[in-house]
Every structure is written in structure tokens, then in C-alpha cells.
Amino acid sequence: MSYRRTKRDRVLVVDDDASLAEMLTIVLEGEGLTTAVCRSGDRVMAAFTQFKPDVVLLDLMLPGLDGMSVCRQIRATSEVPIIMLTAKADTPDVVAGLEAGADDYITKPFKNTELVARLRARLRRSDQLAEPLEFGDIVLDPAGHTVSRKGEPLELTPLEFDLLACLLSDPSQVFTRETLLQKVWGYHHPGDTKLVNVHMTRLRSKIEDDADDPRVIRTVRGVGYQAILPDA
Amino acid sequence: MGRLARVWRRSIQTRVVTSTILLSTLVVALTGWALLRDVASGLADSRRAAAVSEARSGFDYAQTQLDATVETEQSTQSQALTQMVDSLTRSRGAQRTYELVLEGPLLTDDGEVPVRSSAAIGAGSLPTDLADAVRTGPGTFWRYSDLALLGSSTSEPSVVVGSQLRAPGSGDTYALFYLFSLEDQQETLDLVRRALLLGGLAMILMVGGVAWLVSRQVLDPVRMARRIAERYASGNLEQRMHVSGEDDIARLSTSFNQMAASLQRQIRRLENLSRLQQRFVSDVSHELRTPLTTVQMASEVLYDSREGFDPQTARSAELLKGELDRFESLLSDLLDLSRFDAGAAQLELDTIDMSQVARAAAGDAGLARAGIGVRLVGVEAPAVVEADMRRIDRIVRNLLTNAAKYSGSDVVEIEVAQNDESVSLAVRDFGVGLSGDENVRVFDRFWRADPARTQGGTGLGLAISREDAALHGGTLLAWGRAGEGSEFILTIPKPEGSARNPALDPVYA
């Protein structure tokens, strides 16, 4: 995990609760991050454009515009990582939020270390690959953080890039959802495997011709996912 | 026999039809008997009246014959009478409607009395009282009697009419008996009896059939009500009974439907309440969680920098963090319980191996840190069930934590076993054990074995574990012996199986 950079990473905190927002900035500034706070859903886009954050911490319950819509608005213009804050881990809101484009979510209340670990996982540039990787007709370039398929560039979010890089880096291994949560999402504790499913579905819709008949990543039932070696 | 008794106990229709048949049999039998008696006596009476009048004219004729021979010898008189009998024997042949028996002349002393008969009937077979009456005095007498024919074992129902005749010259007396057969009447009677029997049987069957039809008419709606009630019981509240007409059955159906509708309303109301309650709990949780997050984050910041504080402030920061963690687990346990109470808890089923769960739980670092050894029994073979991994893991960890914290035992045993129906996992300790009703009360919310000892924990762990087990259709039961140890057996049914027969028997039972 190479995290040493001259530029301070920027976190946009979107939360209507003033105390929590302030507490978040205290903790994150303590971790050497630059923060900005937005307290209402309908002002997020303005703050986003002005602040240019490297990651967004987004509360799902917001006055003005709800978290889900904010998430979609941001995704429409940017691939910036989004982590949702939610008080209700068991509601359909979480899945809806993930499908709206969020990369991860954290359930309140959380430990500072957990929050920071997840943020770091999203801020970190993938270190799965040192050099460009060719895998069948897919080419991953870690330096430019770009992926192309048959020469055409693919629009992957950083998280999807990390997920793909992780799987393609070792085609001999079947990655369980728990392993992926650890490696890609930075989880220290067992987490929600729905998270993996949602993102895998979206990744497949971008890299496979037919998502029902995958040629790049296959599902190993009851275990996890594995890259399919391209025909030589 | 047992099956019949069961049908009798369970079917109103069987009882109605059976008792109707029994009662109508009794009535038909009584009526038939009375009817047959009347017919029999009527037939016999009319035959007797005819017989007596016919016999009378015969006696008159015989007496006239005797009177005509007044001048002649005694032997001639007797001969005249014998001739009368003989001529009858000859003349009537097979068509004669009566037989004659002549006794006499009767002597005053007990000598042999000559008997002459038109048929093979001995004087001895005549009814004795009738014979005596005729012999001793004048007048006409009659009796019904079954006459035994000589040389035949059968007897024939008959009317016997007798009278004394006196010869005017010699003063000799004779007894003359007319025997009229009642065979025709007997045949008629038999016919009537057969007809009555057949008619009675047919009637009993018909009444039985009618009882069956009528009871069905009444019982069908009742049965329908039963079926619909059963559907209500299984949660389908949309069913209604069909109402037609204005009779009692229709009124029953109407009341039944009203009851169903009111039940449905009540249930909807309760469902609504429960939904509201669930929403409330969920909202409260959200409202509580946001400030709790802030406070917890703040406490962590304070805790992380406690080394720069004076000792009291540093200790305060430690206590603050510890108790906030406890507050958080309490809040999350309460939310879990309220989800169970609201029936909102849902399983995320997966195929899981309980042996694997046991092995993973045994490897927990917390146990080793607390100096607790874990002994595994029967975890070599996979014991697969469909279950919610998160919940099963939570139960097992909870049981282990409890054993480590409260039993005082330094060894904990986990045993896994299975049968066709279920998989059981036991967690045993060899510590203070459970006494009295503690094996039941451990599952009570906020129950503690020793109220003075509140070593962290929420006091809700076992209550939640038992709800988790129940959500799988399984059981979590506790046993214990004071001073020896305690055990908890978790039983999860296999697909299509049930947890009624746990695969493990309690050691401390």
C-alpha cells in the first residue's frame, strides 16, 4: 500500500447533521486529508464542481435532494469514488444506493479506523499491477488507470478497475467475496457480500458482450469469482 | 374396530344415520309385531266362528240321527254314528274342510272307550281340558290347538269344537269332535309376515337414506365452515361462505362471514400497528445512530490522545469509550430484538457446514487470549444445513463467549452431530453450571445469573440467539447441573426436516 503523496487528498463530506459533519472533518483532517462540508442535497453539485474532491462521503438521508439522487447526479459527470453513510444497513436503500453508483457504504455508528480504512482503499491507486496487463483482448494500464477492450477504451470507475485488476492478476485463484471485500474495499471485518454482487454485475455489464454468458470472469457457485484464461 | 370407533367419534353423519336406523328398526319391529298379532287373531276368530256354527249344525244332525234310532239296539245306535263318521271320511275325500273324531259310548267306569276318527288323529292328541269338558257335561266347547297327526312329526294349527251326544234309548253318551284346520289362515299369516318383514326392511333402509341426505344438507355448510375456518387458521383471510336463502344455515353463514370480516379487520389493525411500531423503532434507531456516531468518534479521538491527559481525564476517556461500545451493542441488540418482535427479521439462507462453523468458532483469538481451551467433537464429517451464516455464527460465538465469561471453566467443548432430520451443535462447559430453573431463565431478556456481576455484555445475547434459532425453525435449549457445568444445544432442521428430534442428547439432563 503505497500511500505517500505531496498533494493532500480531498474529501467532500455531505451530511445534514452539523455535529457529525464537524466531527468527520476533525477525524479526517487528523488523518491528513483536506475536507469540505455540504449540508444539503441540492447544493452538492455546486460544492462538487468547486471543491473537486477525490472521494465523496455521502449521507443517504438528506434535506433538499436525497442521497440516492445526489449519487446519480455525481455519477453522471464523474467517476469519483462515493462512500455512503447510512443508519439503516438492512433496508433496500443500501442496494438502491449501490445501484445508483456508490462504491461502498458504512453503517452508523462506525469506528474511526474503519472509516479511514475504507476511505484509503478508495483513494489508493491500485497496486495490484505494476505494469500493463494484457488479458485476451483486454488491456489494463495501471499508470493511466485505463482499460481498453479490442482497442476501445472502457469507462470503468476506479473501483471497477481495482476489482478487475485484482481478479485478472491471478487467474489461477478463485476469489471469495470476503477476500474481495478485504482486497478491494479495505474491509477488516466480515462485511456485506451484496456489495460485491452489485459491483460485479455492473463490471460485467461493461466488459462482457453477454452478461449471462461471461467470457472474462466466471462465477464459482457458492465460492466466488475467477478470471477465465483467454484461449491462447 | 379402532377405525370404526374413530369414524363414530369423528362423523356426526355416521352417528345420525346409525341412530336413525336403530330407532326406526325398533319402531318398525313394534308396529309389525302388533299388526301381525291383530291380523292373526282376526283371521283365527273369523275361522272359529264359522267352524263353531258348522259344528253346531253337525251336532244337531248327529243328535237327530241318534233320536231316530231310539227304538233300536245300542249297537245300532253306535253304528249310525260310526257310519256318519265313515261316510264323511269317504265322501269328502281330500276336499273336506274338517275331520271328525267320535268317542263312545262313554262308560261311567274307566273302561276302554272305542274311538273312531276320519283322519289319522288319536284321541290323545285332542286338548285334554276340552275333551274332559265334553265328556262330563252337555254343551258345545271349542279350543285352538296344534294337533299332531299320527305318523307325522308336524302338527297343524286347528280349531277343535266338541259336544256331547246322548242316545235317547240306551242313555249312552258319545263325544263328537269337529276338527277344523287353520292351515289356510296360517299361510295367509305367513304371507303377511313376509310382506311386513320386507316392507319393514325397505322402510328402515329408506329412513337411513333420508337421514343421510338430511344430515348432509345440514352438515355440508358446517363442513364448509370448518374448511374455511381451517384456511383462516392458516392465514388465508379472504375466504367467505356462500350464503343462499334465509334459513338457519344462511344465518350461520352470514354470522360466520361477519366473524371472519371482523377478524380480518382486527388482524389488519394489528398488522398496521406492528408496521407503525417497526417504523418507529427504525426511525428512533436512525435518530439515535447519528448522534451516537458523533459521540463515538469524539470519544475515540479523546481515547487516542489520552496519553497527554492527566490520569483522571485519561481514565475518563477510557471509560467513555468502553461504555459507548457497550451502548452501541445494546442499541443494536435491542434493534435486533424489536425486529424479531415485529416479525420483520429475515433469513438470508445459504448452504453452510455446521462442522466448519464449529471449527472456525474454536479458532477465535478471543478464547485463546482468555486462556480457554476448546475441545472439538464430531466435527470431521460435514453437517450441512440451509441457514443464515451470519445468525448461526452469531449464536455459536455468543454461546462460546458466555461459557468463557460466566462458567469459570477453562475448557469448552463443541460437539456437532446429525440425524436424518436435523443438525445439532452443543457447547458445553465444566464450570459453575445452572441450577433450578436457570436453564429456562438464561433466555430471559436482561437476565443475569449473578445480578452483582455485570461484566459488560448486554444481557440480550441468549434471547437473541434463541430467536435466531427459532427463525430457522430450530431450537436452542439449555441444561446444567450446579457445580458440574452447563450446555447449550442448538438444533437446526435440515431441508424438509424438523428440529423435533435433536441429534444430540443433553449430558446434564
Helical residue percent of chain A? 25-40%
The gross shape of chain A turns out to be globular
Order of helices and strands of chain B: HHHEEHEEEHHHEHHEEHEEHHEE
Number of helices of chain A: 8
Number of helices of chain B: 12
Give a topology summary.
The complex is a heterodimer of chains A (232) and B (509).
Chain A (H helix, E strand, L loop, with lengths): L9 E5 L3 H13 L3 E5 L5 H8 L3 E5 L7 H11 L4 E5 L5 H8 L4 E4 L4 H12 L9 E3 L2 E4 L4 E4 L2 E3 L3 H12 L5 E2 H9 L8 H14 L9 E4 L3 E4 L5
Parallel strand pairs in A: 1-2, 1-3, 3-4, 4-5
Antiparallel strand pairs in A: 6-7, 7-8, 8-9, 10-12, 11-12
Helix pairs in contact in A: 6-7
Chain B lengths: L1 H9 L1 H57 L5 H19 L5 E9 L8 E3 L10 H9 L3 E9 L6 E12 L6 E9 L1 H51 L14 H57 L6 H31 L7 E5 H9 L2 H5 L3 E5 L6 E5 H18 L4 E8 L3 E8 L8 H4 L19 H11 L3 E7 L3 E9 L16
Parallel strand pairs in B: 7-9
Antiparallel strand pairs in B: 1-2, 1-5, 3-4, 4-5, 6-8, 9-10, 10-12, 11-12
Helix pairs in contact in B: 2-5, 5-6, 6-7, 7-12, 8-10, 10-12
